[in-house]
Amino acid sequence: MEYLKKYPKLFQWLFLLIVFFALCFAIDVPETYKFIRGQAEFVKDPNQSVYFFLGKEVRYYAFDVFWRLPPLLGWLPIWINDSLFFLMNEWMPMEFWNEDTQEFKTRPLLLQVSRNLTAFMTFLIELIREILLGGLETIVAFTSWDFIDAYPWLELPGLPWTIVAAGAAILSYKLSGKGLAVFAGLTMIYISIFGQWKPSMQTLSFILVAAPLSFIFGLGLGIAAYKSKRVEKALYPILLVMQTMPQYAVLVPALVLFGVGDHAAVIITMVVAVPPMILLTILGLRAIPPEVIEAGRMSGCTNWQLMLKVLIPTARRDILIGVNQVIMVCFSMAVISAFIGAKGLGFNLLLALNQLNIGLALEAGLCISLIAILLDKMSLAWANKQTDYFGNLTFFQRNKNVIFFAASFVIGIILAYVGTFIFKGSFNYLFEIPHNKGISTADFWNKGVDWIFDTFFVYIKAFNTWLIQDVLQPMRALYLRMPAVATLVLAVGAGYLIGGIRSALVVAALTLFIALSPWWDRALVTLYMATFGVVISCLIGFTVGTLCFQNKKSAAFMLGVCDIFQTFPSFVYLIPVMMLFGITDTSVLIAVIVYATIPATRYTIEGLRSVPVGLHEAATMSGVNKLQRLTKIEFPLAFPHMMLGINQTIVFALFMVIIGAFIGTEDLGQYILKALSDKNGAGIGLTLGICVAFIGLIFDNLIRTWVEKRKKHLGIA
Amino acid sequence: MSETVIKCESVYKIFGENAKKMLEESNGNVDAKTFQEKGCIVGVNNASFEVAKGEMLVVMGLSGSGKSTLLRCISRLTDATGGKIFIEGQDLLELNNKELIELRRNKMGMVFQSFALLPHKTVVENIAFPLQIKGTNTEDSINRAMEMVKLVGLDGRENYFPRELSGGQQQRVGIARSLAVEPDIWFLDEPFSALDPLIRKEMQDEFLRLQEKLQKTIMFITHDFDEALKLADRIAIMKDGIIEQLDTPANIVLNPATEYVRKFTEEVPREKVLVIEDVMDASTKDNLGDLKVSKDEIIENVAEKILTQDNLVGVVDSNNNIVGSIKPSKIIDTVFGGRKNGS
Fold first, then answer.
1. What angle do CA B182, B187, B192 make, to 5 degrees?
2. Total tally of structural domains belonging to chain B
3. Among the three residues A394, A424, A440, which one is the final residue of a domain in this structure?
4. Do both A235 and A163 map to the same domain?
5. Which residue range(s) make up the domain with A354?
6. Which residue, B67, B190, B167, is CA-closest to B117?
7. Which of A353, B130, B194, B216 could be joined to A299 by an S-S link, Cβ 3.0–4.6 Å?
8. Containing domain of residue B50, as a range?
């Protein structure tokens, strides 16, 4: 009884677990239960009963309501599909002028809007692409094909790669300094020499369109949310879901609305990249000291002047960090949107992976990672750059970067012109190195992979078999053995114990949505893979983080490593694991672990670092040794921040598990991938995406609530 | 008394959702505790006072006493919940947005505790900011800003960024900025609180020098009683949103209106605050000794001379007419007497 009084929470948790296990044992596995239940309403089984719920047909096994809830939400994907179809093809027909046929045509409004948007995006992408690579679509857009036939010299020639490389180096120098300039130059030269110029520039043009547009929309919406509570309240749930929504899932509706191609990819990238921009804009504007705003007011600013001359410049850094985030999202989307036909490195990467040509995949992956790191560093340098006074500089000093670029522009053109004489009859290597004419290391890598396979096949296979048979299969079986009711009780109970009634209700709603969808079993499989990944990642992350923290230099080094790894588009992680483990669940799980270890490590180091110096000194003066200091002072104080790390780890792991479907897993991701090629896939893809997002949000809600309480308790909120 | 510039008539500021309704229901009897129980926080409670042209009113109070809120009501950075505020006869609360902006652009200047400089602008650009907002062209505004730079003694640093300046220098920029449009009314919200003591003293002297030259109408907020005594023409002492006492420094020290005010005045070295006029006996003008002192002399400066006298000392005004007398023992009374604890 005394213990009960001392640790009431502990006993509440114990009670919850007892109820959970009691339910697990009390509810038997129905004999007809098969894992195919994922598609209950598509598989017509005579054992199923048919019910009607709100006029919709629901099929499920009559006896197993406690075992698995009936898929009452089975109609949702179909309804979403029908609504999308209706909106696109039937809603609000209007008369529109058709340029080609020179007459009015009746078209649904949304279809016309989508067409116009598509045309606009295509024009933007083509414009930038042709500046970089040459072409004539842009000129044609303003004139006509006949015009181009008459004046063929109007075709944009494209920039020689030397000029782009010089431009990148000069811009990097201006933003950061020599180091980054050298890196930028080398990256561009590497890309060119290894024959990846064209796809790289295609990807770059995609990003140069998607990132600024996302920035503008994100900034605009962020300002709107800052100014109006109502807008913020309306945006908040969307932002929350978008943060945990796998990027895969949004591709499918985009397919329906905008078709296939770069333009659809740009639009869908905006959908994914705008939310972080909004969040950082709001954050930045909120962080402005109120006195600065008052100073602006007292200077007699109108609302516009206040926004443009005071608020935005003062929040500059946070807003530019938002730009950095946008660029990172754009890179990861540049790869993923290859599924809906975006050209460039992502497409090559996907193609190579599909053909199991690891060497080619590695080359494309390396290129995209290098460009991603470069743009990441450049945008961060921009964010951290302080304005300098330049009124007292000479004309040359003020404009030296422009002058240098102009010079390199001229030199580049001269070089390219000279090149036409040197490389007569073959390709002009000083202008653009074609895709198949660069140095390729693909063979080398492929041989390497073969060698690894030949040499270590036995060991890898043994490890693989052991992991799958002795660890993964039993774990998966355990997860699937949980009756839905027991899981619900556990989730809601945990919500109640951590955050009271409010949390319990939120968690219950999120869990119920998944349980009532037709994909509960798949969600359990997703969850099991994510759990496995998260547990191992956290173990590794905490250990590595704690060890690195012991020394300032190694801690800084580790954070740097985390930064670089985080810059890689998520898809790139699949390449090396496929190299080693082939197409198995093990590959996916290892990719998950590598990817999810990043936030675990980072938050551990940051958490330990945030322990106040005063406490360290106080502890040292109390005569603690290193271990005591770690266990008694640093861990307890850093733990809330480390929990946030676990939260991030879960999100990262879920992302990777879903992407892992590309290799082949039996979870929600598999269906999302399937939905991509299904003509009715939009609703299914979106609902699946929401399911995954909700799994993430359940943990997000629980962990955040706990951390807030704990921080308040420790007085470090 | 010269013309009134700022006039407040029972100004209330109450934070909370139903503040306006609750204020109407209370009929002017606002009790902070009952309001707090209903989820409202009383910032300013029934403040009425006037500030004359060229006068410096210092509002003194501890943190949370509502002094900054009162200032923000008068500059209309927040809207008062009840009451009336007049700026040069204009009803401030009746102004529309455009008129308010006009008023701020031409008549008001404000200095902030944390300086509130724009981090992306240089010193001279910061100072020119209100002018440019107003629409003055670049050349004129920069010229005017350079004059201000000289006025506050920052010449040579006009092209520095705020991040490159010390706290005292940053506040000089803040002061220069608030004066750039030549406002008639000058608001200062704890301008020297963020500075360390030596710099603070230097800035106070500098401030007095400026005010001597400019003769603005000033509302000055501080939590430092010594600062208030040093600068003020009149002091308003606030507690829980209520103005406890509004009077000249001497009267506050000599006749504290409430127990709260008395606590502040207890530790004040009277000889540094009071002038002879405050303690002289105006009725007795006979039997004077040889020594004569001016009535505006601070006691500290003449105490030694007076204490060496055996007779009554004569007090004269600026025209050398005798207006009263003072007993040497009165000085000892003033300096050492009247304090409750014997420290």
1. 110
2. 2
3. A440
4. no
5. 198-386
6. B167
7. B130
8. 4-107+183-268
Residue B165's pLDDT band (cuts 50, 70, 90): very high
Q: Which residues of A touch B113 (CB under 8 A)?
A: 291
Distance, CA of A1 to CA of B140 (rounded, Å): 82
CA distance A4 to chain B (A): 36
- Does A173 lie in the same domain as A296? no
CATH number at residue B304: 3.10.580.10
- Judged by a CB distance cut-off of 8 A, whether residue B118 touches chain A is yes
pTM of the complete model = 0.84
Residues A226 and A179 in one domain: no
What would the mean pLDDT of A517-528 be, rounded to a whole number? 87
Ramachandran region of residue A104, left (φ > 0), alpha (ψ -120 to 50) or beta? beta
**CATH number, domain with residue B216:** 3.40.50.300
How far is residue A303's CA from residue B19's CA, in Å, rounded to a whole number? 26
User: Which residues from chain B sit within 8 angstroms of residue A305, using beta carbons?
Assistant: 133
Q: Which residues of A touch B77 (CB under 8 A)?
A: 294, 297-298
Contact (Cβ atoms closer than 8 angstroms) between residue A65 and residue A482: no
d(C-alpha B276, C-alpha B298), whole Å: 6
**Among residues B242, B268, B294, which one ends one of the domains?**
B268
> What are A77's two structure tokens?
């994907």
Q: Is there a single domain that holds both residue A681 and residue A709?
A: yes
pLDDT, position A54: 59
> A543, A545, A574: which is closest to A562 by C-alpha?
A545
Touching check for A312 and chain B: CB below 8 Å?
no
Q: Give B144-174 as a DSSP string.
A: HHHHHHHHTT-TT-TT--GGGS-HHHHHHHH
Given B120, B122, B187, which is nearest A316 (Cβ)?
B120
Most confident of A395-399, A576-580, B125-129, B313-317: B125-129
The two counts, helices (H) then strands (E), for chain B are 15, 13
The two structure tokens encoding residue A340: 């809906």
Residue A261 is part of a domain; what is its CATH number? 1.10.3720.10
Amino acid in the structure at residue B56: M
At A219, which helix (H) or strand (E)? helix A197-227
The chain A residue lying nearest B182, using CA atoms, is A299
Tell me whether B113 touches chain A (CB under 8 Å): yes
Give ipTM to 2 decimals: 0.85
Yes or no, beta carbons of A294 and B177 under 8 Å apart: no
Domain end among B268, B296, B320: B268
Q: In sequence order, what are the beta bridge partners of A52?
A: A57
Query: Cβ of A395: how many Cβ atoms within 10 Å?
Result: 8
Q: Which residues pair with B243 in a beta bridge?
A: B238
CB contact under 8 A, A297 and B161: no
Last residue of a domain, one of A91, A116, A150: A150
**Within a domain: residue B94?**
yes
Average pLDDT, chain A: 84
For residue B206, give the amino acid letter: E
Q: Does A390 touch chain B (CB under 8 A)?
A: no
pLDDT tens profile A25-70: 888 777 666 654 444 444 556 666 676 665 666 666 655 677 788 7
A292 touches chain B (CB under 8 A): yes
What is d(CA B146, CA B154) in angstroms, rounded to the nearest whole number? 9
Q: Please report which confidence band the pLDDT of residue B171 belongs to, taking 50, 70 and 90 as the band edges.
A: very high
Q: Looking at CA atoms only, how far is residue A387 from chain B in angstroms?
A: 7
Tokens (6 digits) for A51? 């019910």
Q: Where are the alpha helices (DSSP H) in A550-634?
A: 552-567, 574-581, 585-609, 613-621, 626-628
B143 CB neighbour count, 10 Å cutoff: 13
B332 and B194 housed in the same domain: no
CA distance B39 to chain A (A): 20
Find chain B residues with C-beta within 8 A of A315's C-beta: none
Residues A593 and A610 in one domain: yes
Q: B41-52 and B4-15 as β-strands: parallel, antiparallel, unpaired?
A: antiparallel
Residue type, A403: I
